[in-house]
Amino acid sequence: LTGFVGFANLPNQVHRKSVRKGFQFTTMVVGESGLGKSTLINTLFNTTLYPPKEPLPPSAERPQTVSIESISADIEENGVRLRLTVVDTPGFGDFVNNDESWKPIVENIEERFDSYLEQENRVNRQKIVDNRVHACLYFIQPTGHSLRPIDVEFMRQLHTRVNLIPIIAKADTLTDEEVADFKARILADIAYHNIHIFQAPTYENEDEEALAEAEEIAGKIPFAVVGSDKIVKTPDGREVRGRAYPWGVVEVDNEDHCDFVKLRQMLVRTYMEELREYTNDVLYENWRTEKLLSMGV
Ligand code: GDP
Ligand code: MG
């Protein structure tokens, strides 16, 4: 069951319809290198991602400062097709001078908007490929203190262009109490700096179960995650995805150990459609309006 992504089980009919046609979902990971981005992506989709057949967008060739890579995989579950793309930004934070290291990332997001706009303007709009970034996982170093200035800067540059989902990386390096304190401080910082993170919408006519799920997910943000694509044996003999320590095993899929399950639930089950909608209706629309205004149209 752990390998099951869950997008084929999207709850309502609207989801089912768009899902049956097959659809595209793009997640971007941002954060210092070494924080476990690649590991988490593998954990999240429990699949090996292959390089795309098409050439990478121009920004992928950018040298040094921040090199951006995009990998895609076609996943099928219960007859439902999902083209999943992950945009990795491996370099940031490794350079002595990090001023404006967010720029290539924002440019990459906007180039994807550009490509979508160009397709919308074509005569034949039958086969629009949606390569826009629908969610951005922002990896926060597990310092246990508060957001660093570079985190604030990055998030402020990104939040008008992408659904930001903050996560605490390598949460197994913090105690439960440290995680709780850190989460509170991160949320306070985010509020103080007016950073807009993705808000899970709630609908009035939703049933109790759905409301409870929405509240539970919202209550976990920023998700404290542990990634691992290895199977380890627990002291009581179970085989689980996790990280083994002399004092025990941290289980990726155990909700008492970390928020990985909740993060996956939010991304690929509960809010995939909302993330796509908000990207299209708000983030892309705002960008488009700004662009047209700046062109004097
Ligand atoms: P990236 O540079 O952000 O893509 O990081 P990687 O996924 O390559 O991981 C860097 C190192 O951190 C590797 O040795 C991973 O095994 C380790 N790592 C990844 N996720 C975790 C985690 O959740 N907890 C701990 N303790 N280590 C992790
Ligand atoms: Mg990596």
TrEMBL record:
Keywords: Cell cycle, Cell division, GTP-binding, Nucleotide-binding. It comes from the Eukaryota. GO terms for cellular component: cell cortex; septin cytoskeleton. GO terms for biological process: cell division. GO terms for molecular function: GTP binding. Coiled coil: none annotated. The chain holds residues 47 to 343 of 446 of the full protein. It comes from Obba rivulosa. Belongs to the TRAFAC class TrmE-Era-EngA-EngB-Septin-like GTPase superfamily. Septin GTPase family. This is Cell division control/GTP binding protein. Residues 21-294 form the Septin-type G domain.
